[in-house]
Structures are given as structure tokens and as C-alpha cells.
Amino acid sequence: MTATSAAAAARATVYGYPRQGPDRELKKAVEGYWKGRVGAGALRETAAGLRRDTWRQLADAGLDEVPTGDFSLYDHVLDTTVMVGAIPERHRAAVAADPLDGCFAMARGTQDAAPLEMTKWFDTNYHYLVPELGPGTVFAADPAKQLGELAEARAMGLAARPVLVGPVTYLLLAKPAPGVPADFDPLTLLDRLLPVYAQVLADLRAAGARWVQLDEPALVQDRTAGELAATERAYRELGGLTDRPELLVATYFGRLGEALPVLARTPVEGLALDFTEAGAGNLADLAAAGGLPGKRLVAGVVDGRNIWVNDLEKSLATLGTLLGLADRVDVAASCSLLHVPLDAAVEHGIDPQILRWLAFARQKTGEVVTLAHALSAGAGAIAGELAANRAALASRAGSPITFDPAVRARAAAITAAGTHRPQPYAERAAAQRAQLALPLLPTTTIGSFPQTGDLRAARADLRAGRIGAGEYEERIRAEIREVIAFQEKAGLDVLVHGEPERNDMVQYFAEQLTGFLATRHGWVQSYGTRYVRPPILAGDVSRPGPMTVRWTAYAQSLTRRPVKGMLTGPVTMLAWSFVRDDQPLGDTARQVALALRDEVADLEAAGTSVIQVDEPALRETLPLRAADRPAYLAWATEAFRLATGRVRPDTQVHTHMCYAEFGDIVQAIDDLDADVISLEAARSHMQVAHELAAHGYPREAGPGVYDIHSPRVPSRDEAAALLRTGLTAIPAERLWVNPDCGLKTRGWPETRSSLENLVAAARTVRGEL
Ligand code: GLN
Ligand code: ZN
């Protein structure tokens, strides 16, 4: 590496940091506030303390600029909605009465006002609240949160860079508000929105911000000429302002492509690009475009989405090339570190030999600082770090964990026949109708029932050795008895065992398969106060023994109604884990699918006639660029068929998806060759039913009629109305009645009432047929 002394000292930064705190203090404070146990002042103080701790750590680690405004009590897109004053009509009174409670009302809904829709943030497992806009939207700047956090960081004597969701991405992520025609394009509001951003920028400058970061990840997706023109207009206008800080437009999650020259010719001072595998192409594109003369380039060379240590030498080579292409090159993680856990150093349960392959947010911050140092001072300045890094990478490449010959041989022997059910769907549907004898509009749930404090306590007791395996099993069986009894009494048609034994739908399986590592503290925000601990898929995958059969068989022994077996599909196992980056994803998916295939066979042999394989992540993992999608969908759907393809024709295979829009993957859903699919639909007013119908989807489907993301109980009439809407798209012979998703985050009282109303709605609508 030849760092030239002419280059200004490279700076190290990150775009955002995990919000939760080392012990998920934020979750506890926010949930405590909701329950009335924590006051507003205490909540604010906890949040401020967490921000201070984060900035202190980042500065101590050697970051030159800390991000502000990326923190959120719930979601930063919701915060942006507040910042631009786009509060939906139905929440305006609540927000005016109390901004904090109003904000939570928008996120979670109240008995009177539905929450904002929630969906995946690009192809991550983070969920944001979708802005609702219409021709009547009036924006107004409300920079209080941004100004407050900037002031806090500056009070600590730090160079702080406020981070905002950029105006183009904000509008591209928005949806027409309820009642606004579906073809309304929120981007038409750009001219109305820009003055609000101008105001916020002026206020931030006045408050001492030298730089402001505007996040525009939407520009790494395929964009129309009109959208690119709007982008250019936006940044010409913001760049042309005189009273503003310097502007850094940050892009991540992929290659910027045709938006790169567009942004490069606007008068913004800096551009941040993703130079990890996901952003492959940015380097060549940048060189082809003649670089960014006169601008600051922030190079995202440390992958912000996975947990593997950086290949420092490779990153240094990239940075070295970039030095010639911009005025100033700074080093960053490729995206906000929100998507990785906080600190690998606290994972005492992981073998130290493996631990050195891993880097979480804190370690990644260190990598960014190390690389910036080498970029300024030369590779010789980090010789020790480079040697340790080389050794860690070599130990991973040569480990028996990453190569199991038996798994490799089985995966290599898969034939086309192994990935297809021999009978066509129509034939299977008839066999299943005869076997299951369900009523029209059959009712079911998605799998989990409330994960009560008692259940979590039982698991904690087992881990701590306070109870033995026998006692734990009995507690789980008692819960299954209760769940089955409730469902029989409520009159549901296809029952579930309730998943009481599962801490999490991915982790539960990961703990029983080889190749996965578990973390103790590796929490990552999924939405609001919901955090998950993604397992680390580090090696070859196999199934030492049955994983779910005894619970499902026990539940089935308690009832004459069919009990659904419940598994997590291969794509979701990958999507909600940190996956290995040393082989194609499709190869990893096949290994998981083969393990599930054995589980499916064991369930069927144990008398299970309905088996659900959840793939809620199928859509979220869809590549952001259309050109990359066919290859992904080919391996993803094949993995599902590999997992489910060996069952008898009268065994009904279900799948389930949620948290996303499905319009663009209906063909892929069809290609799964499942018999029944349940989908999230309640918040989007059964939109998905129409999308399935428009495609001519021939199978059975249950668009959700009960939004389980909020404690609100849907009335019978409300569920019935949604069902009638569903019937306008899907005929009664193929329509199922179910909630949007599992009930694990809900309490028993609301679950009972909601499911009773759901069954009552099904009966009402059956009576109308
Ligand atoms: N079967 C799972 C459950 O009910 C599905 C969860 C999900 O799709 N996210 O909890
Ligand atoms: Zn779901």
C-alpha cells in the first residue's frame, strides 16, 4: 500500500450505531414506559445516556466524526415523518397532545387509530414505518430531535454529523395515504418537501453542524429516468442553498449504478459508496466516471451487514485505488452498524478460535479506524493488525467446521426429481380435501401462541440448572395442552401446538443443526422494541436428529383435529442468520433444505397431515436490482421444494410470509409448489389477495385478517369485512381465515378475544355464501 503523504489524513466514521445498549436498556425503558412503569423523563434520560455512551465509545475508538440523529426510540423513518410534519390525519390530535405518545401511537396503533404500515428496510431484517402521503400533504419542519441530539454530542466536545433520511429515499419509501388513489406518486411532492429539508439544514448549520449526511439507499435500486431526474433536481436545489452545512449523500446496500453520475454532477460536497461485495461495480463505475474531483468520498469498505472480520489487505487495496479518484477519501462501514450486534468481545461462550473470525459493531468501528490510519500513515503503521487479521482469515478457511465431506456429498447428489412433488397441485388438493374434510373458509393460526413470562422463566430455569430437562418438558407439555384446549373451544379448524418450546423461529433450529453458532448477547433490532439474536451460520449444516416431532406428535395426541407441523424454511434460516461469505448462498440453502427434508419426513411418519414451512424472508432477501433476481429466486424456490418435495399427495404443505409486499414475487410463491399460503394482509387491506388473483394464483391462500403487530383486538365485523374483501379476489373454496402472523409477541387476553372474533367472522361469512 502506498499512501501518499499528499493525501489529507483519512478520517474514520460510521453512519449509525446499534441503539439498544449493552443490556437492551432501551427496550426495557420503552416497554416500561408503555406499561406505565417508567416515566417520560426517565425514558428520555435512559435514551440520552445510551447516546452519550455510544458517542464516547466511538470517539475513544478513534472515530473523527460521530453520527447523530440516527438514534431512535422506535424507528428513524418514523422520526423523519415527524421531522417533516407528515403526521397522518388520524394521529394528529394525539401527536399534538403529546408528541411522545403520539409517536408511539403512529407506531403501534390505538383502539381508535390504526398504526402506520410496517415493512422491511430494503433487504435487511429491520422494519420501518411507511410514510403515508397524498396530494393534500402539507410538510412542516420539526427539527427538534435532530437539533437536540446534535447539541448533546457537541456538548461532549465531539465533531458530530447529523444523519437524515434523504428526501428522495423518504418519498420513494412512502405510500399513498388511505383514501388517496393507489396511483398517487409521493415523489410528486418533492418540490414541497425540499423547503422543509432546507429549513432543517439551515437550523443544523446554525446549531454547529459542519457536515450533514443525507441517506439515499433507495438510489441503489433500479430507478426510472424520472426518479433520477428528481434526484438531480433535489441535490441541485439543496446544494444550491447558501445557508447550509456541507452535504454528504450516503448510499449503501449495493451498487449505485446510473445514479452515480447523477449525484456526482450535483453540488454536494461528499458521496458515500458501498465498496463491499454488495456494492461490487461501484469501484469500476467510479473510475469510469472520472472519480469525484473536488468531492469527499466516504468509502464503505467494512461490511456493515455481516459479522465476519474484514479482509484488511483487500480493503487497503481498494482504498489505495480510491485515493486517486477523489479529493479526500474517508473510511467507513458500508452502512449503519444498526444491522449487527454490539460487541463480539462479550461472547464468552464462543470458542476463542472462532471468535477471532468475528467482528460486531465495536470491532467494525475498530477496523474502520485501523484502515483510516493505514490510509494516512501507510500499511506499515498497522503491521501487527495485518498479521493478526491474516492469521484469523487463514484459520477460518482451513477449519473442519467449514467443510463436512458427508454434507458436501449429499448436496452434490441432488437430482431434479428430488426437488419436485410427483403429483400436480390439483390432484394433491383433491386428496387433501378428502383427507382433511375442512369446512369452507377454514380457520387456522400461523404457529406461535403468546410467549408468556412463565415460558421464558422455564427456559431460564433450565439454562441455569434450576430445573431439569424432565421438568422443562412437562412445563412445555402443559402449555401445549392449554393451547390445544383453547383452540378446540374457540372452534379453530387446523390447530397448532403453539411453539412454546421455541425462543425464536430461527434460533430454535439453529441450536439443533450443526454449522450454526449461537451468541449470548448478539441482539439486533428487528422493529421497535423487538430484537432478535441471529445465529451465525459458520459451517456445513446437518441434522443430528429430529427437532420438532415430539412436540407436534404430543399436540396431535390431544385432539382429533389436524395439528400443523411447523418448520422454518431454508431461505428464512439464512436471511435471519449471519451467513457465511465463503460460498454461494444457494449452496448454503441446499444444506439447510436437506436437513429440513429429513424433518418433514419424520413429521409425516409421525402422523402429521399438515406441515407448514415458513418463508417470511423470501421477499426480503430478494436482490434490490431486478437483474439479480431470477438467479436468487431459482435457488430459493428450489431449496423450499427440496425441503418439502418428498411428502405424500394428501399431506398438505403450507407456507407463510409476512412483513413485505408480495406483488412482485407471486410467480415465485407459485414456484414453491406449496398447497396453502398464509400472508400478512390486514394492514394493507387485503391488497395481496388481489395481487394473487391478478396473477391467476391457483392455490389456497389465507390473507391475514388480524394485525398481530399491535395489541388492538379486531372486532368480528372488522375481520368479516376483510374476509369479504378477500372473497372478491379469492373464491371461497380456496380462502383460509387466519391472523397476519404468529402470536408470540401478544398477550393471552387479546389473543383469546381476537381469535374468537376471527372464528366468529368466518362463521358469519360462511353463512353468507
Ligand atoms: N410460525 C411462526 C410463528 O407463528 C412464523 C413467524 C413469522 O412468520 N415471522 O411465530
Ligand atoms: Zn409471519
From TrEMBL:
InterPro entries: Cbl-indep_Met_Synth_N, Cobalamin-indep_Met_synthase, Met_Synth_C/arc, UROD/MetE-like_sf. Residues 13-323 form the Cobalamin-independent methionine synthase MetE N-terminal domain. L-methionine binds at residues 446-448, 499, 614. 5-methyltetrahydropteroyltri-L-glutamate binds at residues 24-27, 120, 125, 576, 620. Its cofactor is Zn(2+). L-homocysteine binds at residues 446-448, 499, 614. The active site is at residue 709. The keyword Cytoplasm does not apply. The keyword Thylakoid does not apply. HAMAP family: Meth_synth. This is 5-methyltetrahydropteroyltriglutamate--homocysteine methyltransferase.
